[in-house]
Specification:
Layout lengths: L2 H8 L6 E3 L3 E2 L7 E2 L1 E5 L5 H10 L3 E3 L2 E5 L7 E7 L7 H9 L4 E5 L5 H14 L10 H9 L5 E9 L6 E11 L3 E9 L8 H15 L4 E8 L14 E5 L2 E4 L7
Parallel strand pairs: 11-12
Antiparallel strand pairs: 1-4, 2-3, 4-6, 5-6, 7-12, 7-13, 8-9, 9-10, 10-11, 13-14
């Protein structure tokens, strides 16, 4: 498929698209993954990021990509419908457990405090993952090499005796024209009892409502992958199908 065909398919004006060679899938054992990708740069990058995210793409630094596997279509883009999102008993318990947290929205600048927490998170929870060997320079590139509207949302605890704040969670998130896209989140592993991964998703729904944005994009749900299975718990979800965005509770998961 030519660049013109890709641009027409995804509804953008111009742009260069590429496709990767097959590589082992990080989510499903025995599968091979391929990706279509393009670069985000220039003044049009934020609008291109928003448009392609609605088409099922995912951002990583200045790349935006879409799975294009030859024998598998398990990666399904999903997004939370913010205004329809209700607080169940378990969600309320999670929010109550984390009621002492302070949300700080920061520009995309990497800090040593963030990286120290990330290293502990990776070493404890993802020591065999693709980011296991991430260095401080890699982290700075992940956060700072961007041409889109992005931010680091920090979650902190206040020490009432000293007045200092301690970082225990963070999310790199993009602001789109129709929602927030959670690019990557991580937290202090010693605070795992708080359910911080779930809390940060819940807080993004709250933030989307504050900003009057309809969706929170969660990336890909992969049926059969324990790493991605948690996403289906955030109903009401919409998933991108061949006929457009469809409520997940109205169709059978693939």
């Amino acid at each position: 498929m030519s660049n013109e065909d890709f641009a027409r398919r995804f509804g953008i004006d111009g742009g260069e698209f590429y496709i990767t060679a097959p590589a082992p899938c990080p989510y499903l054992k025995g599968q091979k993954e391929r990706k279509i990708f393009s670069y985000l740069s220039g003044e049009g990058a934020p609008s291109t990021n928003a448009l392609l995210t609605r088409r099922g793409f995912r951002r990583s630094q200045n790349l935006i990509y879409l799975p294009a596997c030859e024998s598998c279509n398990a990666c399904v883009p999903v997004r939370i419908v913010a205004d329809d999102f209700a607080l169940s008993k378990s969600r309320r318990r999670n929010l109550a457990k984390n009621a002492d947290l302070i949300r700080r929205i920061r520009p995309p600048r990497a800090t040593s405090e963030q990286f120290s927490m990330l290293r502990g998170y990776l070493d404890t929870r993802h020591s065999d993952g693709g980011m296991a060997e991430m260095t401080v320079l890699d982290y700075a590139s992940m956060v700072e090499e961007t041409s889109v509207d992005t931010m680091i949302i920090e979650y902190r605890i206040l020490d009432e005796e000293t007045g200092d704040e301690r970082l225990i969670g963070a999310a790199l998130s993009d602001r789109l024209t129709d929602g927030l896209s959670m690019v990557y989140s991580f937290f202090e592993p010693d605070e795992s009892a708080r359910g911080l991964g779930k809390f940060m998703v819940l807080d993004h729904v709250a933030l989307a409502r504050e900003l009057e944005l309809p969706y929170v994009y969660l990336g890909y749900w992969v049926n059969g992958s324990p790493k991605m299975d948690y996403k289906k718990d955030f109903q009401p979800l919409e998933m991108l199908t061949s006929t457009g965005w469809t409520r997940m509770d109205r169709i059978s998961p693939r």
